[in-house]
Amino acid sequence: MATFHDRGQQSLPLDMPGQADPVRLRVDADAPTAKRPGRKERLKSILRDMFSTRLDKSTARLGLVAVAFVGLYGLIGGRLIYLGVRQEEQETVRSSARSAISIARPMILDRNGEMMASDLRTVSIFAEPHKIVDRDEAAELLNAVFPEMTGRELRDRLSPRRGNSRAKFAWIKREVTPAQWAQVHSLGIPGIGVVPENKRVYPNGNVAAHVLGFADLDNVGIAGIEKWIDSQGLNDLKGAGFVTESQDLKPVSLSIDLRVTHAMRDEMLKAVNRYKAKAGAAALMDVDTGEIIAHVSLPDYDPNQPALAQNDKNINRLQVGVFEMGSTFKALSTAMALDSGKYNLNSTLDARQPLRYGKFRIGDFHGKGRVLTVPEVFVYSSNIGTARMALGVGVEGHKAFLRKMGQLDRMTTELPESSMPLVPKNWGELNTMTISFGHGLAVAPLQALTATAALVNGGLLIPPTYIRRTQEEAALAAKRVIKPETSEAMRYVMRLNAEKGSAARANIPGYYVGGKTGTSEKVVRGRYSKEKVLTSFMAVMPADKPRYLLLTMLDEPEGVPETMGQRTSGWNAAPTSGYIIERIAPMLDLTPRFEAPEKPFPVVSRLNPWGMR
Fold it and tell me: Among this protein's residues, is 327 annotated catalytic?
């Protein structure tokens, strides 16, 4: 018999077979007695309770399954996201490598098609620092392959953190040898990779180094023609990302003759050593096209080792350096005087006494102490006579002529390196006198060479170029600066100087050389020094039908026994030019001539004892 209890624990009898345990009902003993449920109702109640319990359990199970599925799909989704991010990281690394990889540059050829610069396929080693398992071990292994790098340097490069950022890419070594890469590959270090690159090489070493310039590790042009190439649109090709072989690019053909440049450099090296000079330079120009056939500046450097270019001694003296050109400037002053119409070859100038201007005195190095004709002023290199001619033209006329000849503005060529001339701020008569014989105005030697070429080529100033140029192209760029008859007179006096004057040591038989020497005192502590000089020589060949103009310079040569202690241009720069002409003339297809020229120079009056008939 079952016993039911109300909420107050009072027993309520209930006859229910099979129930031995008390069952608590929510009834009140004081409440009226409810109608006793029948057996059928009680059965329905029990069944309802049973099915309700099972439904609750099924809902829990479904919830658990749902959570499991959500977790599984979440795991899969997370993995996909991770792989996506990982792929993005890989692409970032690849992108970093690609952006740093040096692309191809065009070959550089000389005027005869000889290679002067080209690309060499090489490889570079990089690291993904976040993949390095043991940084110290990896650094130690790599240090064995690259002993020139310190262990600390390698550990820093392999560090996954640099500053406040996380490093995903770092170069280990650029442009390694195949043997080095094989060694690194055999180490099997995770996170170490390799990328192909283009390395710029210069097979001729120092020859024409200042013309070529160089490219950096990323194959970007830093100086010279290499930098000019980038300025012509190579950067656009880099951005496109499809130029990977130098053969895909049109070669750059220079005006430089590699053979002539090599011979000229060799002779200049000998001259610098022979005369114990601080430095030297030489350039050869085609007077009809303005092409620079050879360019030498010593000391120079090997563009395969571009760090050497940073040495101040290795500057391009022909364009970056500016110098007072000494008596070679008398060629410009003489041409100015003749072209003005105020003087001719028969004109005379009083050179008996030095010129005085205030406290300044202008005299001649080897004065004749007499009246000189214009050709004699040139041949004897008279400062007095030249200054008188310049004063006759006038200060403003002098300035206008030099500006027209390109001597007062920065000269531009394909080489980006150039310097402004040093021009007097207050230009008066004294400046005109000193500048007329090459003091008081400092210009780039290539500027002086270009102007002198106009004096002998018929009177056309042609901008210089290091790129191949035809005569038709040169004619379009040319500008007439003096009359043809003035140019003819200048060729006459330059040839005369080689026969009778200070240029005699450059008078190589068969090549009809003409020229003008120049010796300028250098400024030391604000004063001109007689011990430190710059010597130069302008040589035109052949003088009757000019094809080439050669400039030779020696910086601070010393008086040696060979020159009997003399340090002037006639004793060092002029003979050096002669040695150069002997070597390069056959390369330039200049055939020696030993007969009189077909077209004689103009005959001068009896006042000039050197009149050619």
Answer: yes
